[in-house]
UniProtKB/TrEMBL annotation:
Keywords: Membrane, Transmembrane, Transmembrane helix, Transport. It is a multi-pass membrane protein. Residues 267-462 form the Major facilitator superfamily (MFS) profile domain. The chain crosses the membrane at residues 78-98, 110-128, 134-154, 175-199, 205-227, 270-293, 305-323, 335-352, 358-378, 426-445. The keyword Endoplasmic reticulum does not apply. Its main location: membrane. The keyword Oxidoreductase does not apply. This is MFS transporter. SUPFAM superfamilies: MFS general substrate transporter. It comes from Aquipuribacter nitratireducens.
Amino acid sequence: MPPPGPLVDPVARRREQRGWYFYDWANSAYVTTVGTVLVGPYLTAVATAAACPDLTEGEECRGTVALLGVLDVSPNSLVAFLISISTVVIALLLPFVGAIADRSPRKRVLLARLAWAGAAFAACLFLVTGDRWALGATLLVLGNACLAASLTVYDAILVDIATPDERDRVSSRGWALGYLGGFLLLVVNLGLVLGAGALGVPDGLAVRISLLSAALWWAGFTVVPYLRLHDRPPTDVVGGREQGVLGLVRGSLRQLGDTVREARRYPQTLLFLGAYVLFNDGVQTVIAVSSIYGSVELGFATEQLIVAIVVVQAVAFLGALVFGRVAAVLGAKRTILVSLVVWTVVVGLAYLLPEGRFGLFVALAAGIGLVLGGTQALSRSLFSQLVPFGKQAEYFSLYQAAERGTSWFGTLTFGLVQQLTGSFRLSILAVVGFFVVGGLLLVLVDVRRGIADAGNEAPRVV
């Protein structure tokens, strides 16, 4: 077992980094095929069949389903409620996962087990047919929780495989490979779903096969980081190392409490986390509402929106690589600020976009793709510089939990503005505020001081 930190041999270190990239490649298939495109409409259709079993074509379903056995919700609102439930579960779960990961000498094993559990839940979505919406709802929440937990461990491993000068590049390449993998499987699955009739495959079966393919992709490619990554002993462990699972959990809870109490010693880290929560909320809101804006306000068909989604995925691959190179010259903080300016411009142009101009809509989708991967990849690598060594997973659990736990602010703002004004254009314009305020907070972050406070080595370019 090598000591904590990156391997000294650059050849061995690059080999381990290439293995790490493949977890981005593996889980992005679930994010795109399942989370972004297919499971929402499919689960809504299954819930509609349960709520209105005698519904005829063209008739509106006025029935409800009993979520958690007590809450009657419309089938059209089910997925939104499930996302909210997932958010709460994840926000409560991740700090404990992070504390356990930091005490574990086998992070790669923990990563793989969480990934394979999530993939198993995703694979079982194939069994969701007829009116079995409750099974689908449970599997979706569990799959999302496993994904978030695995990403907490995965992000923390970045510090173990890359030197401070390498992290922007390594993080960007991981994101780029993830977008490429998600794009390739999504194209195949969209071809199957859209061409199901011509292939003689029922529409529902085509969706279920696509969901299963994403699960198998996630599980199969997780084998690469499992085999390529090295285990390392934990560092900065509070209260010694207890034996057994219960001992590990008890020690992890003590360490989590210690970390929460000591977080105030790292004000620059917390300031960056606050900035990230805001501008990332803007990013997630744009992703979430783009299809609604495109269909309702701009009048585009579903097939056109699918084309735009594919364009975003394809361009995001290149964007992550480009922004990784820019960061090598400007530093991660300045490059993220550049990306936030681009985000502001793109959203502002969306406000002005005339109805029915699909070519311009695709151009804006390409603009989103260009900055999407770079913003996320460099935020990950910059945060890794600001967390105390030995507590990476705990801080990345806060990073992931904050991202998901507050990701409803942007969509709530979008919905409230639309409710009060009746205008989707003013709603999309309101999202600009998240990029502006988040960017202003990021300007205030003293990265060099934050790195020094955390006791880390500063990269050549900050």
